[in-house]
Amino acid sequence: MPDRPLILIDPLPRTLDVICEPDVRKRLEALGRLVISEGKPMADAEVDRLLPEAEILIGQTAMPKARLDRAPKLRAIFNVETNFLPNIDYREAQARGIWVLSPTSSFAAAVAESSLAMAIDLARGITAADRAMRSGTELYGLAANEGSFMFAGASVGIVGFGDLGRQLRALLVPFRNPVKVYDPWLPADVIRAADAEPASLDEVLATSRVIFVFASVTTENQGFIGQREFGLMQPGACFLLMSRAAVVDFPAFLDAVRSGRIRAATDVFPIEPVAKDDPVRKVENLLLSAHRTGGMKAALHQIGRMTVADAELILKGLPPVMCRRADPAIAARLRSMPVAST
Amino acid sequence: MPDRPLILIDPLPRTLDVICEPDVRKRLEALGRLVISEGKPMADAEVDRLLPEAEILIGQTAMPKARLDRAPKLRAIFNVETNFLPNIDYREAQARGIWVLSPTSSFAAAVAESSLAMAIDLARGITAADRAMRSGTELYGLAANEGSFMFAGASVGIVGFGDLGRQLRALLVPFRNPVKVYDPWLPADVIRAADAEPASLDEVLATSRVIFVFASVTTENQGFIGQREFGLMQPGACFLLMSRAAVVDFPAFLDAVRSGRIRAATDVFPIEPVAKDDPVRKVENLLLSAHRTGGMKAALHQIGRMTVADAELILKGLPPVMCRRADPAIAARLRSMPVAST
Amino acid sequence: MPDRPLILIDPLPRTLDVICEPDVRKRLEALGRLVISEGKPMADAEVDRLLPEAEILIGQTAMPKARLDRAPKLRAIFNVETNFLPNIDYREAQARGIWVLSPTSSFAAAVAESSLAMAIDLARGITAADRAMRSGTELYGLAANEGSFMFAGASVGIVGFGDLGRQLRALLVPFRNPVKVYDPWLPADVIRAADAEPASLDEVLATSRVIFVFASVTTENQGFIGQREFGLMQPGACFLLMSRAAVVDFPAFLDAVRSGRIRAATDVFPIEPVAKDDPVRKVENLLLSAHRTGGMKAALHQIGRMTVADAELILKGLPPVMCRRADPAIAARLRSMPVAST
Amino acid sequence: MPDRPLILIDPLPRTLDVICEPDVRKRLEALGRLVISEGKPMADAEVDRLLPEAEILIGQTAMPKARLDRAPKLRAIFNVETNFLPNIDYREAQARGIWVLSPTSSFAAAVAESSLAMAIDLARGITAADRAMRSGTELYGLAANEGSFMFAGASVGIVGFGDLGRQLRALLVPFRNPVKVYDPWLPADVIRAADAEPASLDEVLATSRVIFVFASVTTENQGFIGQREFGLMQPGACFLLMSRAAVVDFPAFLDAVRSGRIRAATDVFPIEPVAKDDPVRKVENLLLSAHRTGGMKAALHQIGRMTVADAELILKGLPPVMCRRADPAIAARLRSMPVAST
C-alpha cells in the first residue's frame, strides 16, 4: 500500500518504547509507514532522503529552512522531548502550515502530585519527623508540631501558571487555600477562571505561606528570584522550586533556607547530577529531590498518547487538540537545557 | 446577674487555653458563669457542690448516676478529650435528656492532609529520595523512580469511614482514585454517597494499591489486621496506619514491611513514647511519625470552636449540630486509651 | 423462629409499596416479623396488643407515654411522613433510649434540582419565553433577553439551611455564586463549611439577586417574610418559595410579584388544592408549581431506603446514621401540616 | 505618538458598545490608535488606505490575499461575530504568521446554564406544570409527577463537545449523571479527561435519557440527526437542540416530539424569526426558545473581554490564550449562517 503516510520517528533522547505503551504503539503503526531511529539520531542522509515523502515527523530532528523546503508533504512535527528547542525554523514551518507541536503537559500530573505532597511535608514536617524518629530525637504531644502549620487554608502563591501550575491548582481545591498567581504571560481573566487571584511577583512572595515555582526559564527571567525576593517572603514561608534551577539565584536561595527564615523543597539543581560533596546535601529545612518529580513511566507514556492522538487528527484533516503548538516568538525565548536521557 | 447559667470546665488533659482561641474564649465567657479547673481535675467536693446549679459541663469529670442525680439542671456534657470514655453513665444521661457530646471531628482535617501527603510520599518515594540524596546514593532519570507509581488514579482502600476517612476521601477528589471503603458500622448508601464503593475488608485489602486505616479500636476489633490480612495485600501496596496501633497485629505489620512486600507509614505505636532502641526506628520502607498527625494547634482550637458553638445552641434550646452525640451502646464498645497530655 | 424482631408498620399516609422498592422491601422482610397496616391506620387494639413485643415501629402511630409504657422492647420509631408531628411523647421516648427518627432528607434531591431549574428559569425567562412563543409575541436578538440576567455568578441568598438548602447549595458550586445563608438554628461555622456566608435575614434579602426559601414552619416564624421584607429586596430579585406557604405573608408576597418589583416561583400555596378561580393562577412573573417539586417516586423510595438502612443498624446494636433524630424541644416547635396522601 | 499601533475596528453586526464594557473599552483605547466603523461596514477605500499600517483588525472585514498583501504589519484579525466565515484567506494569513482568532467561547456560559435548566424542566415538567396551573388542569400528589424523572443521576448524552458541551458538562458535576459524548473531532482522552465516556452517535442516542446537541453545522453533517436517529432514542427521552437547526432533520424532529415518544426543547428553528402561523408554536412536549439562550449582554461583553485580552498579549509579543485560533481546514468546513444583528 504505497499511499500510507510516511512517518519519521527520531525521538532521541526518548525511545519509542519509553513513550508508547503497547496499545498506543499499535495505533501509531496503524497510521502509516514508520521509519524509526532509536538510540541514535536519524542519519542526515536518511532524513534528507525521506523528507520528500514524509507527512509526520516525531522527534527533535534538525529542521532548518533547507530541510522544510525538501518536505512538501510534511503536515506536523512533534517534539517529544517536550521543550521547544532551536532545532526548527519555526517561522518557516508556520508559513507552510506545518503544525509544530509538543505534548508539554505530559509531566504535569506527576509533578503536581509530588509538589502538593512536598508542600504538605514542609508545612507539617513529615520528612523531618521521620528523620528525627530515625535518630531518636522525636518529640511528642504539641511539641512534636512546633513550627508546623495546617496546609489546608494556608495562603498559596503560584509563580508560573502553565500546565504544571494549573494542575497543582486543581489539586488544591479541597484544601480551600486562597491562591495568588504571578504569570506575566497570562491575562487576569485566565487566572481568575481558575479561582485564583492575579498578583505581582512581589505580592505573591510577600503574602503567601506556601510558594510554588513552576516558571519556565526564558532569555529574560534567569535568576529572577534572588536575595531581594527571598527577603520579601514571610518568616516560616515554604518555597518549592519545581521547574528549573535557573529561575532562582541558587546561592541566595540556599542562604535563605540555611538562615532558617524559610523552609524549602527543590527538585532541580544548577548542576545535575549533584556533586557527591555538594554542601546542598546537608542543608536543614530543605527537602531534596534529585530531578525526579516528573520522570515517571506514566508521564512518559503520556507523551506517546498525546502525540499519537494528535497525529491521528492531523491525518484526518482535523486540528490537533492535545499538544501545545509552538509559537515562533515564544520558542525563541525559551532556554531549557535539553534532556540528557530518557 | 444570678441567673446566668453555671458552666463547669474541667478539661484535663486539655486546658482551656489550648482549646480556645481568644475570640472563642470570649464567646464562652459570654455564655454564663465559668468555674474552671485547669492543670488538675476539679476537686470532687467542688464538683458535688456545684452540680445542683450546673447547666453545662465541659470536661471528662466522672459522672456516674449518683452525680447525675445531683444535677437536675444539667443540659449537656462535653468531652473535650474527644474520645468517649467510661467516665459517664451514658444511659442515665440519655434518660434525663442530657446531651453527651464530643467534638470528635476536630482532628480530621489535620490527620487527613498528613495522610494524603504520606500516601503520595510512599507512592512517589519522597522521604526515601531525600534520605538517598543526603547519603549521596540518589539516582537520576527513570532509575530515580524505580518502584514509584502515580498516586493519581491509583486504587484506594479506606478502612473506617468516620470523620477521618471522609475528610481524606474529600481530599482525593481531584486525584480521581477509585475508592473502596470497609466500615461495618455504615450502610452502603452512606458510602456510595461519598463516591466510594462499599466492600469487605478482604476485598479492600486485596484490590487497593493504597490502604488507609482510620478505624477506631473497639472491644471487638483489636488486631483485626494481622498476618493473614497483610498477606492479602498486593506486592508494592502502601499501607497507612493513622488511627490506633491496636487495630493491627503490630509485629505482623512490621514483618510485612520488612519483607519488602508492602510500604507503609504509621503515626501510632503500641507503646508511646517509642523506646530509644526500638528496632522500628530502623525499618526501611516505613515512614515514621511519632503520633503527631493530629496534634496541631489548629485542631485543638477546633475542639473549643465546636464545643462553644454547640453550647450556645443548647442554651438557646436548640439541638447541637457540630459535636458527635454519644451513643450509649457505642460508647461502651470503644477502647481508646486516654490521651496523656494536651 | 419466634425470636425474630417484631416490626410494626403503620405508614399512613404512605404505603409500604410507595416507599419501598422491591429490593428494599426484601431487606425489610429479612429483618423480622412484619405486621403491616396499609391504607388505614393500624387499629388501636392491635397496636396495644403488639406493642409489648414490638422492637421497631415504622409509621405515625400515636405513641403517648401510656403506650411507650407498654413497649419495653421498642428500640426505634420511624416517622415516614417525614415531618415530626405531636403524635409521640418525645421526652419519654428519649428517656427510654428509644430512637425517634425520620428520613427527612428524602425529598432534598428532588426539591433542590427543581429549585435550581426554577431559579435559572426566572433569571433567564425560560417559561415566559415559551409562553411568548406560543402566543406569537416573542422577540429576537438582544430584545429577547431584556430583563434577563446570568444566573452564574449572581448573588444567592438561602433562607433555611437544612437538608434542602444544603443540597441546593451543592448544586450551585459550578455556578460560582456568592452565597449568603440565614438560619438562626445554625452556628456560623456550619454555614461557612458549606462555602457560604452567614448573614441576617435582612442582609440576605437586601443583597441577593436570587433568594431561596427552604425554612420550616415553626410556632415562631409564621409569616416572617412579609411586606417589610419584600420591600427590602432588590428590584428584579427572584424569590423562590420552596418549603411552606406559611413562612410568608402570602398576600404581601403576591403584591410584590404583581407590582413587577420581583419575580417569583412558588411550589406551595396557603390552601391546596388551589381553588379553580384563585387569581394566583393569572399572576405574571410568577412560576407556578402545584406542590410537586418533592413528590417524586424516587424521593418516596428514599424514605424506604433510609428507614430500612437505619433499622438494620439499630437491630445490630449500632446507631442510626441516615435518618434525622427527633429533638424533643424542636419537635414541639414544628408546625407542618400532615401530608394528605402518598 | 505616531508609533502607537493602529487598530481597525469593523465589528458589524456587532458594535463596540455592545461587546465592550467601559473598563474593557478603556483598555482597548490604551492599546493604540483606534479607527472605528460602527453601524456599517468600514468603507473599502478606508480599509485599503489603513491596512499598510494596521497591526490589529477587529471585525469581519473581507481579507482576501490581495488585502493581506497590503498589510505587512498586521499581527492579528479578531472575528467578533464568533463564527469563522469565508471572509478571510485563512491559509495566506497563517503563512504570514497573522493570528486569526475568535472568542468563540463567549456564549458558552449563557447557553450552558439555559440548557441545564431546560433539561431539568423537561425531566420534571416545570413549564408544563406552570401551563397546567394557569389553565386550571394541574394535578396534585404523585399524579402531579406522572412521567417526571429525576434529572440527578439520569444518563446524559452530549453531541458536540466544544465550548458549549464542556461548559454544560461542568455544570452537571453535582448531579452525578453518567455522561456519554459523541464528537468525531476529538480524541477519546480529551473526552475522558472531562469525566465522560466517548461513544458513537448511535450509542449516545440509544442509551441517554437526556440528549444535548451542541454540534456545529459543517459541510458534512447537515441533518445528521433524522428519522432513523430519533427512532433510536428511548421512549421518554429528552432532546435539547441548542446549536443550529440544520444539524437535525427538522420535520423528523417535530414528528418525534408530536408522537409523544420524546420530549424536547429547541432554541433554534430553520427560519428565524419563526412565522406567526408556524405550527411549531403549538407543539406539546416542546419547550420553545426563540434563539435566545446565548444572546445575553454578559455573553456579548465576553467577546470584548477576550478580544482585548488577547490583543494585549499579541502586542506584547506573546501568544493569545483566550480566543480560538482559526484552523484553515476547519474554517473551510463550517457552515454557520452569519448573525443578522447584535
Automatic annotation (TrEMBL), chains A, B, C, D:
Gene3D superfamilies per record: NAD(P)-binding Rossmann-like Domain (3.40.50.720)
Keywords, sorted A to Z: NAD, Oxidoreductase
Domain of life assignment: Bacteria
Pfam family, one: 2-Hacid_dh_C
SUPFAM superfamilies the record matches: Formate/glycerate dehydrogenase catalytic domain-like, NAD(P)-binding Rossmann-fold domains
UniProt keyword annotation of Signal present: no
Coiled-coil regions listed in the entry: none
Keyword Transferase annotated: no
Annotated ranges, domain D-isomer specific 2-hydroxyacid dehydrogenase NAD-binding: 116-291
Protein name: Hydroxyacid dehydrogenase
